[in-house]
Metal-sulfur cluster biosynthetic enzyme
Amino acid sequence: MAATTLPATLAATLHGVAEVPGPLTEGRVLRALDSVIDPELDEPITDLGFVRSVTLTGSSVEVHLRLPTSFCAPNFAYLMASDAKDALTALPNVGVVTVELDDHHDSDIINSGLVADAGYKGTFLHEAENDLDELRATFQRKAHTAAMERSLTEFLRARPELAETALANVVLGDLPDDSAKAALLRRRVTIGLSTVDSASVLVDERGSPYPAVLAALALRRARSTRISIDGNAHFCRGLLATRYPGSEVDLMPKAEQSYFPLSSIIRTHKRKIA
């Protein structure tokens, strides 16, 4: 079966194409940090303004992170800081990597754990009941659900005559090659779902398609997940700007196509959305 063609930059990311070695620059550091995702908000920490500073000294790099509040969940905070250190350590020819989380109530604990490479359980000891793998997987599945909803909602908007039940028959090859589809493909790869053109789009977390009779309900449930993620992201952006005046310049505007007003869908399909 034919696979959907991926944009070059996405394909490079998915297939682990190594970056060409070169001098360590702030731009290369930020590109590496682009791969670090806030698991709850499903956006890179660079887009969210969470990278407070980057300091280069020869081949060594020191990065300071900040969050919207001092009481953001410690597991999420640790996960992002740890992922940031891993992303920077993987850069070619990099020297000492220092990542510190500023102004969090657990900054001292998290930063000490990062220095010692102690891992989440080694950092929080008895307070960490489990490692972060399942937490990460849970939010990766939610990110896929939200991306699926964005793609299918846009698909419906372009075809107002189409009934929601017909979404059960939509396959990846039917979707336009746009940013919504690229985001969906990336998230499918992350959770191990197929990206072949013939693969159904409306699927559960295991990749099982929904029957036509459940398509509308599945889409509504996916929409509630997407709205929750988008709403939290919007809220956190506002909190960060309030906490750190001037940080607005570090926030990447949300892509317009990532948000679809419910009123538009209601008008288009003349259905009441619960």
About this structure: Confidence is low (pLDDT under 50) at residues 1-17, 257-268, 270-274. The radius of gyration is 20 Å.
